[in-house]
Amino acid sequence: MSRIGRRIAFDYGDVRIGVAVCDPDGILATPLATLQSKDPSLKRFIAEFVDEYEPVKFYVGQPILLSGEEGAAVSKVLAFTQMLTSSFDIPVILVDERLSTVSATKQLRESGINAKDARSIIDSAAAVAILEQGLANERK
């Protein structure tokens, strides 16, 4: 396991970015926020999360198709990760996000939440799935 400290995960999308955070021990991942991808204040919002949670690592969902090939959104995700690495002195790890949104949608539906009414919830729940996968990878 990596050193103790919070980690923040991002599920990057063209419209929204789901954000999740874990406790300092890396046990419990929780939804944090949903940001707008095109918001001019995006970097400032992330900086506020960094100031508040003092993360030791960022995880970003890597768009990989079920076939294992990189998805069309990979260049946008890489641009987002470049912004993170150039703006913050925090390691950024890409995490396979193949089923993160599908998993989040299913879990919300099972909880009685309609996916159409809860797109922003789905984005932050997908970030939780990315964070949980990143934490699981650390434990290997």
From TrEMBL:
This is Unannotated protein. NCBIfam families: RNAse_H_YqgF (TIGR00250). The lineage of its organism: unclassified sequences, metagenomes, ecological metagenomes. One of its GO terms (cellular component) is cytosol. Coiled coil: none annotated. Residues 5-104 form the YqgF/RNase H-like domain. GO terms for biological process: rRNA 5'-end processing. Keywords: Cytoplasm, Hydrolase, Nuclease, Ribosome biogenesis. The keyword Hydrolase applies. GO terms for molecular function: hydrolase activity; nuclease activity. InterPro entries: RNaseH-like_sf, YqgF, YqgF/RNaseH-like_dom, YqgF/RNaseH-like_dom_sf. The keyword Nuclease applies. Signal peptide: none annotated.
